[in-house]
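Suppose a colleague, Dr. K., hands you the sequence of a protein chain of 85 amino acids and asks what its three-dimensional shape might be. Before reaching for any lab equipment, you can write down a predicted structure in token form. Begin with the sequence itself:
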Amino acid sequence: MQWFAVVMMVMKCLGDILKAAEEAFKGIPESGATKKQWAMAMIHIAIEGIDDFVLTPEIWDRIEKLISPAIDIACMFLFPNEEKA
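The predicted structure, expressed as tokens, is then:
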């Protein structure tokens, strides 16, 4: 499997991962960075479990460079900050 195909698989379920992170840290103020770290860790673990895919540090770096900004963008829509609205 190509690394970009893995990215596309992650994108399909990114909203669910972010909602799980939001629920896991519900009520904890200023936990945005922790939620993102948690989401990235869960994504990393899930990718490691894909059969016939070798997750090297170089490939993880490529994947992370695409997923990280996608998380930021998705969070703007899923969890808008009322203070900035």
